[in-house]
Design brief:
- Its main location: membrane.
- The structure is a single chain.
- With 730 residues, this protein is an alpha+beta fold.
- Helices cover 60% and strands 6% of the residues.
- It is built from 22 helices and 11 strands.
- The strands form 3 sheets. Strands 6, 7, 8, 9 and 10 form a 5-stranded antiparallel beta sheet that branches.
- A hairpin with a 5-residue loop joins strand 8 and strand 9.
- Helix 1 packs across helix 10.
- The longest helix is centred in the last third of the chain and has 35 residues.
- The radius of gyration is 30 Å and the shape is elongated.
Length: 730
């Protein structure tokens, strides 16, 4: 692999104008596509084949588009001591309902004071009107949402407390904003400090932005042909930006090292791609395996997220091994700071001093203590993980109109009113069957659960029974209630019976995701384990890497539960709301974190393996490899942490806990697992760390360290048309 990549790097730097133009053409092409072909995204989750999802499709057929459309609940509360049914307040309610009925895009607004279908609290202090849209929540436009906000402002002038909630008010995740800008600024600062060269830092950042822009624009273009989740493009941007910067960092760092060894610009760029590029390809492959593996769990929206993010990683790798060497050919020795141009690497002080080498010596000399402290610290942080709860229902951020509306509904109507359960009776005998089912449910369900009379459709082919639980959608008793209803009613006399509604969909999706997580984890860990065995030709090094990842994921989940579920330091990170973790978050976090953790394992341990292969004793090989790779890994982890963390305070509510878990997970993995636990464990293993059973020695050698290039150094004859600048002092 190293030889092949060396040739690719050499071709890229020699034909740098052609390579650069090709990438720019690709960028312009997908940019035009994003601007002209983009479509709407979805912000609801469902799994085909689940009972609740099947019922929603049947409801759409039997009751029309409006039954499956978006809604907004506008809650009106009377001043303290008054009733919403008082004449003056009733007149104000009628005025508000009239305004709501004329909202752009709405097909109507219910009158909560209608005697036939009242929506008034028992104490008559509050009421709510349901505004219906004939489209899915993702198809409600920003202008229509703004019209709702304007109507609320107008309605509040009449003396009533007026707030609104509903999926139609949920804004899809947007690409572009303060989050991305903040992450890019921090990355530029870290790169400038690492390189001590603004030229190299700017070039590194520019190539990463080109790659992530192509990936993001491609996904936006794709929305014109298929419906993607609103979080898919922003996840791809977040991940693509982080790994794009890091992969370029590894190659540029090696390029600078080869320049100082006296190689020409072309030879240094080719060697950097052949050595560091091999590690980039291997690391990128582990991330792609982890992300593409999401498709095996059989959940369509997870498959699209995984494949979209994996495609972004592929683009980042291709940029790193083609566009980066091409740009390096343009900037040449300016990738080095002025004071190092013409100063060979052998002239640097190398007497064993320095923080990095001192840290490596400390960890390897006190390996047992270092390992115990690292494991214990992460284990303590992981404790909250064991109380993690998941849900598909997204809580509104505190201080928003959605949160205030939810509080009024919970206190005046009960927590179950906002998320009712729907029992669909479908078939030729649906009407008589619905009456029997309604009576049976009213007798058997817990006290406080309200079972409303069945509502048949126009031709009598289906009927709906609405059930108002006494508990909220996130309560375990509501989950038990759904299962109790499903176990107690069954199709009879030619009618099929389904339990659906947003709460039932959430329960079904969460259950499917929880069941899929162990299978997914086993598959991804197994595939990555095989890849690491091929890379390091060792069994114990991959075991150390995988066990370190389990510590990372436990601590990341523990910290996320403490902040986003328990509410610890929630204000400090602008968590918005606290409660159960979004059910799709754990499996996404596992996939992304595993790939990135293996990145650091490859980059760090490959240098240790290289030193060991050159004959260094086990402990000295660890110290040497650590000293060479740790500074770059630290810079890469700092950049990745900054990119992910920037999405927490200002990000979309779906993205916030995922970005937080990725940020703290990267910090735990890079600075505790890879900088303490891994070198300590490898020191304790000694020579056995690099042991490979005889019956596995037939396995192919991937040559991540570029050993083939060292055994047979390729000659790079300068082309007449590309004279190379000498590495001289400025």
């Amino acid at each position: 692999m190293a030889t092949l990549l060396h040739r690719l790097g050499l071709a890229s730097v020699r034909h740098r104008i052609l390579v650069t133009v090709a990438w720019l053409v690709a960028l312009v092409a997908v940019g035009v596509g994003a601007g002209t072909l983009s479509g709407a995204t979805a912000n609801t989750f469902s799994i085909p084949g689940q009972e609740s999802t099947t019922a929603l499709a049947l409801m759409k057929e039997r009751f029309g588009e409006a039954s499956a459309g978006a809604t907004v609940q506008v809650v009106m509360a009377a001043p303290a001591g008054q009733r919403i049914t008082d004449p003056a307040n009733a007149a104000e309610v009628a005025r508000i309902v009239a305004v709501l009925g004329e909202l752009p895009g709405a097909v109507g607004a219910s009158n909560p004071l209608d005697p036939k279908a009242p929506a008034v609290s028992r104490d008559q202090a509050a009421a709510y009107s349901s505004v219906r849209y004939p489209v899915q929540p993702s198809e409600v436009t920003d202008e229509q949402r703004e019209a709702v906000t304007a109507a609320l402002e107008q309605a509040r002038s009449g003396g009533l407390t007026v707030e609104a909630r509903g999926e139609a008010l949920s804004n899809p995740a947007d690409i572009g904003g303060a989050s991305e800008i903040l992450g890019v600024v921090v990355a530029l600062i870290v790169l400038a400090l690492t390189y001590r060269s603004l030229v190299a830092a700017g070039m590194n950042l520019l190539t990463a932005i080109v790659g992530v822009a192509i990936g993001a624009a491609g996904l936006v273009t794709l929305t014109g042909f298929t419906e993607l989740q609103s979080t898919t493009p922003i996840l791809a941007v977040m991940l693509g930006l982080a790994v794009g910067i890091d992969y370029a960092l590894f190659i540029v760092t090696r390029f600078r090292h080869e320049l100082r060894r006296g190689l020409s610009v072309e030879a240094a760029a080719a060697m950097a791609v052949g050595t560091a590029g091999a590690a980039v390809v291997t690391a990128g492959l582990t991330v792609v395996i982890a992300l593409a593996g999401l498709s095996v769990v059989g959940i369509p929206f997870l498959s699209e997220m995984g494949i979209a993010a994996a495609a972004t990683i592929v683009i980042a790798v291709l940029v790193a091994i083609t566009l980066v060497p091409a740009i390096l050919g343009f900037i040449g020795v300016r990738a080095l700071p002025r004071r190092l141009r013409g100063v060979p690497a052998s002239s640097e002080v190398s007497d064993g001093r320095g923080f990095i080498r001192g840290w490596a010596n400390l960890v390897t000399r006190h390996s047992w203590l270092s390992l115990i402290v690292a494991v214990a610290a992460l284990a303590v942080v992981a404790v909250p993980f064991f109380s993690m709860r998941t849900t598909l229902a997204q809580r509104a951020a505190e201080g928003t109109t959605q949160a205030r509306a939810q509080a009024i509904i919970d206190s005046r109507f009960g927590p179950g009113v906002s998320s009712p359960l729907l029992v669909l009776i479908d078939g030729p005998t649906s009407v008589p069957s619905a009456s029997e089912v309604q009576k049976r449910l009213a007798e058997m369900l817990p006290e406080g659960t309200l079972v409303l009379p069945p509502q048949p459709n126009r031709d009598g082919s289906a009927a709906l029974i609405t059930i108002i639980p006494a508990t909220g959608p996130e309560d375990d008793r509501t989950v038990d209630l759904v299962h109790q209803i499903r176990d107690s009613v069954a199709g009879d006399r030619g009618a099929d019976i389904y339990v659906t509604g947003n709460t039932a969909v959430s329960i079904d999706v969460s259950q499917k995701l929880n069941d899929a997580l162990p299978v997914y984890l086993a598959l991804v860990v197994g595939l990555a384990f095989v890849l690491l065995v091929l890379v390091f030709r060792s069994l114990l090094v991959p075991v150390v890497g995988v066990l370190g990842f389990l510590l990372t994921i436990g601590a990341a989940f523990g910290a996320t539960v403490a902040v986003f579920q328990w509410g610890w330091a929630a204000d400090a990170v602008n968590a918005g709301s606290t409660g159960p973790i979004l059910s799709l978050a754990p499996i996404i976090i596992v996939g992304i974190l595993f790939g990135l953790a293996m990145d650091y394992q490859v980059f760090l341990v490959s240098r240790m393996h290289e030193a060991h292969a050159h004959g260094a004793p086990p402990r000295e090989a660890i110290v040497t490899g650590f000293r060479q790779a740790a500074p770059v890994v630290i810079a890469a982890a700092t950049i990745m942490f900054a990119v992910f963390a920037a999405f927490v305070p200002e990000g979309n509510d779906t993205i916030k806990p995922i970005a937080f878990a990725l940020a703290v997970g990267i910090a735990f993995d890079a600075f505790i697992v890879r900088m303490i636990a891994v070198p300590a464990a490898l020191t304790l293993l000694g020579r056995s760390a690099w042991w490979l059973p005889a019956w596995l020695r037939w396995l192919p050698e991937l040559d991540v360290e570029g050993a083939a290039l060292e055994r047979h150094p390729p000659s790079v004859d300068p082309l007449p048309s590309h004279s190379e600048p000498a590495v001289t002092s400025a």
